[in-house]
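tool_call: predict_structure(chain=1)
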Amino acid sequence: MHNELLSCVSKELKNKATYLEKILGVKEYAWEYSVAKEVIACLAENGFEILGVDILRKIEDSLEYDFPNNWYRNPDKTKTNTENISISCEKAISYIEDFHRRWGDDFLYVIIYNRL
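tool_result:
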């Protein structure tokens, strides 16, 4: 699934990603607050719905999942794909902004998505 993500983000965004396989053993990418919203917008433009956001806490030279603070949503089956993409992006961006405002810069964001 991460290849789909890389195919729709710019080279600049790819270079800002943290690949988590060597750090946490998962084939996912994480981004700092400064680019996470841009990644979400790029995914939406390419037909991806945002299903959630995992939060990673930076601890010295490592990362760990901050499980109580993750966010997920179930798609609304009464909405069109376009509506679900729009709603999911708005909610994900709002969640990331609120989280960053409260807790600061010591976190990375893993965007969970699905192509519609």
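agent: The mean pLDDT is 90. Proceeding to next step.
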